[in-house]
Design goal:
Largest sheet: 5 strands, parallel
Strand order of the largest sheet: 9-3-2-13-20
Shape: globular
Radius of gyration: 22 Å
Strand content: 15-25%
Number of strands: 23
Number of helices: 14
Subcellular location: Cytoplasm
Pfam family, one: Succ_DH_flav_C
CATH topology of the domain at 244-346: Flavocytochrome C3, Chain A, domain 1
Oligomer: single chain
Helix content: 25-40%
CATH architecture of the domain at 244-346: Alpha-Beta Complex
Keywords: FAD, Flavoprotein, Oxidoreductase, Pyridine nucleotide biosynthesis
EC number: 1.4.3.16
Pathway: Cofactor biosynthesis; NAD(+) biosynthesis; iminoaspartate from L-aspartate (oxidase route): step 1/1
CATH superfamily of the domain at 244-346: Succinate dehydrogenase/fumarate reductase flavoprotein, catalytic domain
Length: about 550
């Protein structure tokens, strides 16, 4: 069994720091929530690297919000519910579509510069959206622009304390409440931080897989520590694989945005044939899980490791203006989007599941909140609609701050962390262990799954459990422990769900089964695995 704490410690012997709100992680969720909380509270923001290391920074497509007169919250809600494949929480979706526009205005107030055309915000359309509603910045560098604007505000905020290069080891709890967090400093020493509320903004689990669009920091830390603390973790079997990441010798996996297909790009197999008409009536703009599996099927049929994305029929001016970042990146590897078909293949992209929250971002542990990709608010269901994640982060970030402002102060105490007698150091090449884990997840719990493979995957993971009995101290070791924890959650959830839905596809149960499986998967360290029916009439 995975232990309660990933390291041993004696709380009585540790330095103690008190604040009001502890925000763990950066990205749009951490930055926005910290800024909002700092208007009324003392805030400590902790990042394991820096403010610029997050998935948000790499978000290209944009942020979905209803700001056009031709659009409506009902249209966005319908698109979101369809993409979510029956598992969305209708109340959470309602919150998102109605409160999203205000959040966008707040981003603008904080200094985010979205692209404009003729004095109006330039809106584009992405896969599974019925309307043009995606705001973008610098063409295809939306995430970077949002992080730039928010990070500048964070750094200049005198009421906000920032700790970069600090690793949060575990959450401190007592009597079913979160009291704060155990933090490791850059020099290896540890400190206990206590607060009125703790907010997990730690991002997703992209590094579970060999090929991912996520940065190195996406190791599921928040989900893993919440699980160890006893929080409910929901729907971890739903992983979104982005259909089109650059697949070229010598180049890292780089996201070729959904918006490229939104602007009219075709997908072709290596024989040059368009193929999406064989898989879905929406062709290249079908939901991501459909497109990703279609690409894998074409790769297998044609015995290739990639397919092509082709936008050469559009004008060079449009391509360079709309996708300057992608255009320049590809050009660095000798690929010209205006004249060349670009080789692409699916890569792990987004985690729909996470720490279960209510409509104000609070988890099953009082005073512990989760926001952004680390959370499971109910917005995304079984498959996230493109560009809804940035909107979700700001909408629920605001709601978390509203809830925190109503909390009474908490006492600065917690259960003591003495537990296992860990005295042996980790031996063996950690890089090899991590690579083996990633390859195993691709093979057994990736785009296509079945019972035999998932059981084999669990068997492999269980061989790694003795890791938790070792004395872990380096950041890489601790990240690996968190990845291993999340790998169990994904694999157990996938094994339990005997159907195919959204980002979860079982070859032995290829059909969606609403009668038996219109349910959420809940994983809890003490209570094990259970399912909950989706009550909303969607």
């Amino acid at each position: 069994m995975i232990p309660r704490y990933v390291v041993d410690f004696d709380l009585d012997k540790l330095p103690r720091i008190e604040t009001d709100v502890i925000v763990i992680g950066a990205g749009i969720a951490g930055l926005y929530t910290a800024l909002k909380a700092s208007e009324t509270q003392r805030v400590l923001m902790i990042t394991k690297k820096s403010l610029f290391d997050s998935n948000t920074r790499y978000a290209q497509g944009g942020i979905a919000a209803v700001i056009s007169d031709e659009d409506s919250p009902d249209f966005l809600a319908k698109d979101t519910l369809i993409a979510g494949a029956g598992l969305c929480n209708a109340a959470a979706v309602d919150v998102l579509v109605h409160e999203g526009p205000h959040g966008v205005q707040e981003l603008i107030r904080y200094g985010t510069n979205f692209d404009e055309e003729d004095g109006q915000y330039a809106l584009t359309k992405e896969g599974a959206h019925s309307q043009r509603r995606i705001l973008h910045a610098n063409g295809d560098a939306t995430g970077f622009e949002i992080v730039r604007a928010l990070a500048e505000k964070v750094k200049s905020d005198p009421t906000l304390e920032l700790w970069d290069d600090h690793f949060v080891l575990d959450l401190l709890t007592e009597d079913g409440e979160c009291r704060g967090a155990l933090v490791q400093k850059p020099d290896g020493s540890r400190v206990a931080v206590f607060g009125r509320a703790t907010v997990l903004c730690t991002g997703g689990t992209g590094q579970l897989y060999r090929y991912t669009t996520n940065p190195e920091v996406a190791t599921g830390d928040g989900v893993a520590m919440a699980y160890r603390a006893g929080a409910d973790i929901r729907d971890m079997e739903f992983n979104q694989f982005h259909p089109t990441s650059l697949c070229y010798p010598g180049a890292p996996r780089f996201l070729i945005s959904e918006a490229v297909r939104g602007e009219g790009a075709f997908l072709r197999n290596i024989n040059g044939d368009r193929f999406m008409e064989n898989y879905h009536p929406q062709l290249e703009l079908a939901p991501r899980d459909v497109v990703a599996r279609a690409i894998v099927n074409e790769m297998e049929t044609t015995k290739s490791t990639y397919v092509y994305i082709d936008i050469t029929h559009e004008s060079p001016e449009l391509i360079k203006h709309r996708f300057p970042t992608i255009f320049e990146y590809c050009l660095n590897y000798g690929l010209d989007m205006t004249t060349d078909w670009i080789p692409v293949a699916p890569a792990a992209h987004y985690m729909m599941g996470g720490v279960k929250t209510d409509l104000h971002g609070e988890t099953s542990i009082h005073r512990l909140f989760a926001c952004g990709e680390a959370s499971s608010t109910g917005v995304h269901g079984a498959n996230r609609l493109a560009s809804n994640s940035l909107s979700e982060a700001i909408v629920f970030g605001q709601r978390i701050v509203d809830a925190v402002n109503k909390l009474t102060p908490a006492k600065a105490s917690a259960d003591n962390g003495l537990g296992l007698d860990r005295n042996a150091a980790l031996t063996g090449a950690l890089i090899e262990r991590r690579l083996k884990l990633q390859k195993g997840m691709v093979r057994y719990a990736g785009l296509r799954r079945d019972r035999a493979g998932l059981l084999k995957g669990l068997e492999e993971l269980k061989k790694q459990l003795p890791l938790f009995q070792l004395c872990l101290s380096k950041k890489e070791e601790l990240e690996y422990a968190n990845l291993l924890t999340c790998a169990f959650l994904v694999t157990e959830g996938a094994l339990n769900r005997e159907e195919s839905r959204g980002g979860h596809y079982r070859e032995d149960y290829p059909q969606r089964d609403d009668l038996n499986w219109r349910t959420h998967t809940i994983l809890n360290r003490e209570k094990g695995i259970r399912t909950e029916r989706v009550d909303d009439d969607v």
